[in-house]
Amino acid sequence: MKNEKKFGFWSIVLLTINGIIGTGIFLSPAGVVKTAGSKTPLVYLFAALFAVILATTFASAAKYVTGNGSSYAYSRAAFGRDIGFYVGITRFAAGAIAWGVMATAVVRTTIGIFGGASAVTNRNITIGFLILMAILLAIVFSGTYITKIANNISTIGKITALVVVIVAGFVIFLSGENHFSEIDSLRDASGNFIVKPMDISIFVGSVLSAFYAFTGFESAATAASEMEEPEKNLPRAIPLGIAIVALIYISVVTVTMTINPEGLLNSNEPVILASAFKNEIIRKIIIYGAVISMFGINIAASFSTPRIFDAMAEQGQVPSFISHKTSQGVPVYAFIITAVMAIFVPMAFQYDMKGIMIISSVSRFIQFLVVPLAVISFFRGKSSEKVIDAKKNSFTDVVIPALSFLASIFLLYKFNWKEQFSLVDALGKTVPNYYAITAMVVGYVILPLILYIPYKMGKYRHIEKKI
Which single residue of 98, 111, 312, 440 could bond 317 by disulfide (Cβ 3.0 to 4.6 Å)? Predict the structure, then answer.
């Protein structure tokens, strides 16, 4: 019998979409446009292809392992508990930081929209943070059914806003307005070209920036136990969700660059995407759609990220009290710990969006390297734990994961580490970004070490769960 309280196929598709569409497409398309110029749709296409390849890899893993934790569960099942532990801890840290990024974005944007730029102070952001977390706490603690309803509504709302962008832009284009070819010749106040000539380094950097707007799909399978037939639904739902997002993103950047590229590049508004339009009704729809979108992605993060810590507690790899659940099945302590991290990290960065976005984006790549190898291992019949006897496919279980691994290596190699982990001070001098460096050390060395030692000493209770 169908369980109405669990996520069905289309709810999983919406959860995937909701986990992806958040701040990126509403707030940061101008950053990609400034570096890629008229090549921006191509950049988003490459970013989408990379995301589809990775999403297909995660979907393939989901048919072999249906336990909670996503990349944590896959890596543990393939390579053992120690590697699973490290992937789980770093994935949890990345998820909590990503949640902090998204919470910062929704609070800053909401304050900027309704209070103006002068109201966007650290004090007001902190107050807004606490209010947002309280709202999310109420939603998540209501149980899976209420969370599913809230997720579906917010996802439909954000898709509607973006469809309005596409349709309105297309109508304006049909009226004869087309400025797409002008973007590479636009100049700043000093008379310099805004878009610089493209080379391979700029192209890769642009793809990475665009790819950030596609991340989040990897969290869709985190709470697999709360989904109907996850071994069947996840492998179909995740790629479909990515494909829908890719179509929306490419359409949005193309139409906005066509009707008003200068508005995008010179925008000072909280929601940059709205700058492409002059019609006030359309602008309001985009602005409120952005708020709904960012709130929705916070719902997705508050639902999925705590489940990673919960899954590790059930496996005895972190303190067992973390797996304690309410009568609605909500991992209460896992949620509180995740929320505290999501609040603390942005505060430590003084709400510097660039710094925490870098950490969030880069920190995802450990799972992008391990999960493809795990899928290939499952295909070969080699695993540390028993996995589902799923139908094997050499293309989706070997070729695609191999491409995922190689693409991740290439992007990490081409990533400008020096630039991303440095800042320009008041004197115009480049200095190390110690906040970003410290966050990486804490998330990837100190936190795993602190929790690993008592785990190896057998201090945590092991609660055996099915895969």
Answer: 312
